[in-house]
Amino acid sequence: MRDGLIRHAEQQLGLSRRDKEGTTFRQHLEAVAQATGETPPELIPLPIPAGCGAVWSVFLQLNARRGNNGMAVSPIALADIVAWQTLMGVDLTPWEIETLLQLDCVALAAPTSLSDS
After folding, report:
1. Alpha-carbon torsion, ordered 112, 105, 88, 16, to 10 deg
2. Element holding 104 (H helix, E strand)
3. For 27-39, what is each residue's pLDDT tens digit?
4. In Å, how far from its chain's centre is CA 66?
5. Contact (CB, 8 A) for 29 and 42
6. Cα–Cα nearest to 76, from 63, 89, 94, 93
7. CA-to-CA distance for 67 and 75, rounded, in angstroms?
C-alpha cells in the first residue's frame, strides 16, 4: 500500500521539475497533448492505493507550507506534523506518520529542474 503511494508521489513530484525558463515538465507534456491530441503516458497519474488518499492529502498540505533555510527546502519537521494534528483535531497513526516522512524523503530527493534528472 505504502509503496504504491510512494510511486504516485515520485511521478507527481517529477512532473513539477522546471526547465531553465521555469516551465514544468507537466506543462511541456500538456503542450504535447494539446498539439497531438494524445495524452502522454507520463500524464496519466498512477493510482493512489485504497486507504492512502487521506495521507496524500495531509502530505500535500504540509508540503505546500514547508520552510526553507535560504539554500534549500527544509524537511517536514515532526513538530509540523504534531501542529497539523492539533489544528485539525486529527490523530495520525504511526503508519501514517511514517508514510508522511517517507513521502517527505521522496519530495526532498526529487530533482527540481529538468537538467537535474
Report:
1. 20
2. helix 94-109
3. 999 999 999 999 9
4. 12
5. yes
6. 63
7. 8
